[in-house]
Amino acid sequence: MTPTPKPVQAPQQRAGALIMPSGWPCCDLFKLFPEEARWQFYEWVKQQRAFLEKHGWIFEEAYDQYVRRVTEELDL
Q1: What does the H/E/C string look like for the chain?
Q2: Separation between Cα atoms, residue 18 and residue 58, nearest integer Å
Q3: Phi-psi category of residue 67: left, alpha or beta, with phi > 0 → left and psi -120 to 50 → alpha
Q4: Cα separations in angstroms, 70 against 1, 6, 20, 24, 73
Q5: Is residue 8 part of a domain?
Q6: Considering the entire predicted model, what is its pTM?
Q7: Which structural domain range is residue 68 located in?
Q8: Are 71 and 42 in contact, with CB atoms under 8 Å apart?
Q9: Residues ≥6 apart with Cβ < 8 Å to 11
């Protein structure tokens, strides 16, 4: 008998909460900026995520995955 893989469980949506899809924000275009500007943008996107989470937004992407993706996109 072949086991059926478990489907990826979608985040639970609380009443009134918005779910932000993974991949937001996309930072690829900022690779063209100097490193100092990319670090400033990195700090800004982390602050934006914290602000949105504080106000009830739910992210599909775990925080560690988010940081890893953003630093790779910014080439940091």
Answers
A1: CCCCCCCCCCCCCCCCCCEECCCCCCCHHHHHCCHHHHHHHHHHHHHHHHHHHHCCCEECCCHHHHHHHHHHHCCC
A2: 6
A3: alpha
A4: 41, 28, 15, 9, 5
A5: no
A6: 0.62
A7: 23-73
A8: yes
A9: 19, 58, 59, 60
Domain count, the chain: 1
Would you say residue 30 lies in a domain?
A: yes
User: Could you read off the pLDDT of 17-58 as tens digits, one per residue?
Assistant: 555 555 566 777 788 899 999 999 999 989 998 998 898 888
Decide if 42 contacts 76 (C-beta within 8 A). yes
**CA–CA–CA angle 48, 20, 43 (5° rounding):** 20
Note whether residue 59 is domain-resident: yes
